[in-house]
Amino acid sequence: MDRFGDVEAFLAIVERGNLSAAARHLGRSLQAVSRSLAALEKSVGVELVRRTTHKAQPTEAGYDFYRRVKPALSEIAEARAEAGNRSAEPSGLLKIGGPELFGPSYLIPIVARFMEMHPKVEVELSLSNRFVDLAQEGLDLAIRIGELPDSDLKALRLGVMRRVVFGAPSYFDKYGRPRHPRELAEHQCVFRNTDRDAGAWQFQDGGRPMTVKVSGRLHLDNAAASHSAVAVGLGIGRVPLWQVQDLVDSGAIEVILEAFEQPAVPVHVIWPAARLPLAKTRLFIDFLAANLHIERRNRECVVV
């Protein structure tokens, strides 16, 4: 097996978690994959993967090596395909990250259509509310909601999403509809105790920031539960609109105090600032930008 195959085996072991899964993915024998890993470790002079009976975990040196060789090997693979006139149809594993609640409603339908169009592409979708490190998680791209910190990543602004105050028609019929954020202090409000703005909601009044202290009798630690609580009339909530868009569309809840909303939050797709993203990554970014149905203002591609 050539050195390219040894590195290919190493990448598959790291991404699949053990030698057996890597061997199945590559269509090689377990012994061949094991020999490739041993040969690579002998070549670089350091242990890259710590093996147990059922698991293979990269060492610190192995993780650093993975981060460096993954983009390079991917480009080599694509160059080989192009040279062999096999690049017309993208293939391989595409690893995508995104916010947990954003995934089911927004990403899954787009991923499903993309996979139908490109049957040789395999997708691994990782959903988390953390701002994960793309290199550490081995992601090709990710969706980020909110302002982006300075980094060495590339980003395409997909649009913006509002943070809204909402309630059920039954609640408003019973307790009245607030006309100004200050009136929220007189209402039952529903929020997660873990929210960054729990008990202190932010607004703008005449272009000036305003904080309103709110409270409620119901205490929750789950976003979906808080949305349901508002929908059945237990109080007034405040969340990003994308989290409750289906409830708005169905008429279960109504958005209020729109004139006092803070500026909308940007939504980006980000990817490593390599020399050139792989064909399947480029295709998915373009497909995502064309099919993600959110409010769009000042779409631009930037390095952040």
Automatic annotation (TrEMBL):
Family the entry assigns: Belongs to the LysR transcriptional regulatory family.
Protein name in UniProt: Transcriptional regulator
Source taxon at top rank: Bacteria
Domain HTH lysR-type: 1-59
Protein species of origin: Mesorhizobium hungaricum
GO process terms (BP): DNA-templated transcription
Record has DNA damage as a keyword: no
Keywords: DNA-binding, Transcription, Transcription regulation
PROSITE patterns named among the record's database cross-references: HTH_LYSR (PS50931)
Gene Ontology molecular function: any one: sequence-specific DNA binding
